[in-house]
Amino acid sequence: FPVAPEDEDEEKALQLVESYLQNFYDLQRDHKHHLRSKGGNPLAAKLKEMQTFFGLQVTGKPDLDTLEIMKKSRCGVPDIGQ
Amino acid sequence: YVFTAGNPKWKRNDLTYRILNYTPKMRKADVEAAVQKALSVWSNVTPLTFRKVEDKEADIMISFAYRDHHDNSPFDGPNGQLAHAFQPGEGIGGDVHLDEEEAWTKNGRGYNLFIVIAHELGHSLGLSHSNDPGALMYPTYSYTDPNEFLLPQDDIDGIQAIYGQSNA
What we know:
The complex is a heterodimer.
Chain A: H1 5-24, H2 31-38, H3 42-53, H4 64-70, E1 74-75
Chain B: E1 14-19, H1 28-43, E2 49-52, E3 60-65, E4 81-85, E5 96-99, E6 104-105, E7 111-112, H2 113-124, H3 153-163
Parallel strand pairs in B: 1-2, 1-3, 3-5, 6-7
Antiparallel strand pairs in B: 4-5
């Protein structure tokens, strides 16, 4: 069956969030592995770091305000962990 | 303002720069003017001076590049990542890379080259990203008319904390 549009949007949003946090907040590319083996959610933790940096509401979730910032054009230098 | 981890800084105040190549989207003279104006943003408030060199290694090498340009940080095409720069140091240290696939301009359309280079030079001199939304070193792009641009106090405080105030 064709993917429902909402699922497609969600998939795109997740890809945006993951690549943004990998590029600028040092999210490890194998963070999913961490999810299964050690518990905790590295992606949510990094998302909180990003939301704190930009003065957004710290939810650990990719809410609309967070996605808006992630879509902005920007400098390629990471915000943390240089 | 935030210093780059490890507080790297140039050990000399008299730095050199070189423009390795030019975007075809702007006149060469306009690229040069944007670079000079961006450098003066920082030299106006510190003892730093910048001298242009034509054909040898400079402290700050400025170039336009496509996608993978062999520094482990590939560009991503139009929009998204506009440019990046490296902290003070030998070799690639201090260098500024600009994504050639961006719509570079000298005005408010596309991405203003002066604003982006001025930001990247902050990295070249040892500053990291500031979380002050009004700072030049804030990570996301926002346009200011170059003729009205004044370096924000957060950035002045940061760069003077590294190099001191201007001798002028």
